[in-house]
């Protein structure tokens, strides 16, 4: 199959596709709120350091492994790992992880789609009532929204790498950026908006402790789409002459910049509407921020700018979140899809049909596990906790498996593939890399303290 493997047509195509993967719901709400609660500028500094010193090397390793193998994670690990069982396991894990994360991300994306349609239809006042979200998640309308999202995703993925993922990213990412800038500009003109900027940016080092540091690294890891097999798969769509190193740096910078800029929208919006907000009281959960808190902000906004204008602002916000979520979902579903194509030697269309069925079934189980279908909520109760299937997937895969996958790729580079091979791979398409300080740093860090740190995070969560 590798002879006919599709490749991104250009560097910018890859960068936009990978940035599309990286920029997601986590950037828009999760990151800004975490920063504000955990020391503002101090958190931002720590986060930036993690992106640069820990995430970038892992990112380059994933992309390098993918391009070397020209395969999706499963076969990449199997071939470069010379068939050893433990590396096959790593490849298997890097294939199942994106599938499971896709399920929980799909649920959120479907909700966002529902909120987008409702705010577009002028129902902002209903969205803002306290009971709405609870009723919404337990309503069979979910199925209709799920069908909508599934059609959009398949429409993109069926086009393949160039005509699907790359083309969609080239349209959607600039649109996303434009909407973000529009909202930031609008929000910053509201009275009291700057109080939010202050909470977000003024550093408070007294807030920094072990769990904040841990959280910042987990957030950076998730935000850059690491440990999900995505960058291995996208790396395999690189040509030998493409410059992985520069592309990786640009993706990391873009993702971090979007997260940073989103903070200039999210926090000022909160403080302009609720000046008395205590940052400590903001919810850690992006889900409750997006679906319970934000509709209220937009409704309160209608008192000063009118209901119609507030509905437009809400619609743009949900469209922004939807575009961010769709481009991430596409990347994560591409991993098991391309693995299936390779493993079973089937067409993209066939693989998408199988994936579509499996994902739909699991998404329905996760989405109805809040009470709609008692079996699925009871099932998790029997397991000894009162968590929904949705929460269990989130806890297991986000908290635990992501750092484990990161750890595995570091060990793979150190003990199996060897660091000199990684350097050789990354130097193709970027001749200067071999002699750069970055090469020295990556080679050292990836075989020493990065896996150590990831191992600590992993053992803390199991
Ligand atoms: N980087 C995404 C975010 O911040 C996370 C993600 C990527 C989730 C790809 C799913 C798929 O939201």
From TrEMBL:
Superkingdom in the source lineage: Bacteria
GO cellular component: membrane
Segments crossing the lipid bilayer: 12-35, 41-61, 92-117, 142-159, 171-196, 216-238, 250-274, 305-330, 351-376, 396-415, 441-462
Keyword field contains Nucleotide-binding: no
Pfam families on file: SNF (PF00209)
Keywords: Membrane, Transmembrane, Transmembrane helix, Transport
Localization: Membrane
The keyword DNA-binding appears for this protein: no
NCBIfam families: Na_transp
The protein's name: Na+-dependent transporter, SNF family
